């Protein structure tokens, strides 16, 4: 049991940590997606993933264009076709999250999940762009602090009617340019952050696990993946308990050309 007065501070610390984990999960997701994008010669980069990540190529400029519907490298998500052996093909989103999976008993589930993940990519792109400064406050020096405050505004004529803004359950971070310093305060939404962290983590799990089984543990013959049903993202954003994801084990048989 925590000492008197420390329970609320402990809960706030957990909420702040959860917020940080969520944004870092989305950041990791796009680091992986950007690193796995086919190069200008349409070469796939799976076997060079460590080198790609080590080059520290910044995905943010391209993602900013994508979020604004401008031409960019992320347009490949809509247009690129991946060729496998035996004449098998897939779009880039399926290649990213269901690497090498074809002709299973769960094709309808997988295709539904590909659509859900495509929607999620668009949503997470906007999330990470809109919260870029907050993300940087975590990544570069832990420049975020607890800065609780409460404001109440009332009219002298009707003092009992008040507009109240309570930011006790929030975190704050500072940005600075040559003209001004700004303190930003972010209201924490713990349940939403938890559900969206799970969703982004499932997408990361698929990227890694299908390639792990393909290149490292192929002798096992089966790969575990997550499939997201239609509406799973909306339920995660709305903080519902069940986000309608499921885990399935599928055969992984096909090589990349």
Number of helices: 9
What value does the average pLDDT take?
81
* Beta strand %: 15-25%
Residues in helices, as a percent range? 40-55%
List SSEs in N-to-C order: HHHHEEHHHEEEEEHEHE
Strand order of the largest sheet: 3-6-7
| 3D shape | elongated
Give the N-terminus to C-terminus distance in angstroms: 59 Å
SS elements, strand count: 9
Low-confidence stretches: none
- What structural class do the secondary elements suggest? alpha+beta
Q: For the CA atoms, what is the radius of gyration? A: 22 Å
Largest sheet: 3 strands, antiparallel
Which short descriptors sum up this protein?
two-stranded antiparallel ribbon, elongated, 46% helix, alpha+beta, 9 strands, 9 helices
Descriptive overview:
The chain is elongated and about 80 Å long. Helix 1 (7-36) packs parallel to helix 8 and helix 3 packs across helix 6. A hairpin with a 4-residue loop joins strand 6 (170-176) and strand 7. The N and C termini lie far apart (59 Å). By secondary structure, the protein is an alpha+beta fold. The chain has helices spanning 7-36, 49-54, 60-67, 76-79, 92-97, 107-130, 132-139, 190-215, 232-237; strands at 81-83, 89-91, 144-145, 150-155, 158-166, 170-176, 181-187, 222-228, 245-251. The mean pLDDT is 81. The chain contains nine helices and nine strands. Strands 3-6-7 form a three-stranded antiparallel beta sheet, with helices on one face.
């Amino acid at each position: 049991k925590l000492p008197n007065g420390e329970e609320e501070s402990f809960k706030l610390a957990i909420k702040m940590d959860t917020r940080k984990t969520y944004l870092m999960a989305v950041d990791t997701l796009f680091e992986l997606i950007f690193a796995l994008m086919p190069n200008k010669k349409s070469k796939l980069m799976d076997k060079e993933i460590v080198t790609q990540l080590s080059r520290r190529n910044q995905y943010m400029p391209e993602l900013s264009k994508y979020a604004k519907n401008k031409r960019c490298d992320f347009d490949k998500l809509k247009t690129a076709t991946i060729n496998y052996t035996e004449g098998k093909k897939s779009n880039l989103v399926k290649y990213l999250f269901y690497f090498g999976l074809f002709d299973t008993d769960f094709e309808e589930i997988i295709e539904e999940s590909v659509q859900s993940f495509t929607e999620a990519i668009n949503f997470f792109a906007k999330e990470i762009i809109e919260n870029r400064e907050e993300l940087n406050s975590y990544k570069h020096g832990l420049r975020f602090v607890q800065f609780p405050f409460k404001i109440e505004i009332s009219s002298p004529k009707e003092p009992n009617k008040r507009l109240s803004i309570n930011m006790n359950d929030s975190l704050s971070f500072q940005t600075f340019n040559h003209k001004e310093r700004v303190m930003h305060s972010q209201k924490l939404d713990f349940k939403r952050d938890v559900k969206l962290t799970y969703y982004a983590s499932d997408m990361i799990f698929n990227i890694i696990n299908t390639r792990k089984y393909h290149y490292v543990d192929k002798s096992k013959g089966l790969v575990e993946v997550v499939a997201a049903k239609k509406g799973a993202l909306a339920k995660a954003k709305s903080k519902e308990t069940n986000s309608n994801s499921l885990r399935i084990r599928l055969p992984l048989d096909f090589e990349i050309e």
